[in-house]
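Folds abound. Consider this:
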Amino acid sequence: MTVFLLRRLLQAVGVVLAMSLLVFLGVYAIGDPVEILISPEADQIERERAVKALGLDLPLWQQYLVFLGRALQGDLGRSFVFNEPALRLILQRMPATLELAFGATIVALLIGLPLGLYAGLRPKSALSQGIMAGSILGFSLPTFWVGLMLIMVFAVQLGWLPSTGRGETVEVLGMRWSFLTRDGLAHMAMPALNLALFKISLVIRLTRAGVRETMLMDYVKFARAKGLSPARVTFVHVFKNILIPVVTVVGLEFGGTIAFSVVTESVFAWPGMGKLIIDSINVLDRPVMVAYLMIIVLLFITINLVVDITYSVLDPRVRLEGKA
């Protein structure tokens, strides 16, 4: 396990360095923030002073080296607009996005796993066919349209849930969290469900396919021949094995949920990182854009590492391959 972790960590360091170069060059080579941030009435001297203050007077390769040196010290630059550390701005918004992503993932697993398990065990029943037909909607319906429909039904017509905002929050470990309050959970219900719809459909289909494949395996037939109860066969011999692809896909989808929750956060006015990055793109606030993308890169690398470790726990064959 130690060799496995060391190899993964070395790979992660290489990926971070490569992505830092690509992200920096991609963001800094597009557009000119000076044209947006500096008044058109400013004279040439004022413009040159502003360009130097923003660090944009250096060649691009020197700007990257300066960025890399500061990044190694935990400084991802200062926002051109807010004149605050970009990392601090993102970390202030991160709890809102994280709890929304966690909520969507939990909803997807709580709904998708039982439905997919039932559809796999009884594939010919009318309910199973209805579940699979309904899962197609989760893939097909646009996120923004579903969000608007949820607001129209549950907030406007029924008045059960608040339509926008994050609601009441509680400070824990220096961060504000809304899922610890009843009002916060009420505000979180619709955006979390909106984010979870695609993942519910994905989990249903993955689980059903895994169950149908696993039920044909020899060890499942042997367990049945031994006279084990259907519940034991299902939850001990079948369910554990189908979790491997589900864990992989859900783990990667969790990172995607955080990175691409912009639409849901915009529809429900959820004050997360998605809203911040959209505002930063509009004004070409390069440090915030780079910091956001680098955090997303680190997040995906961490999730992949956790998924690999979970893989090795669920499937001993992974550990044996690592030793080989």
Summary: The mean pLDDT is 80. The longest strand covers residues 170-172. Residues 208 and 296 are 31 Å apart (CA to CA).
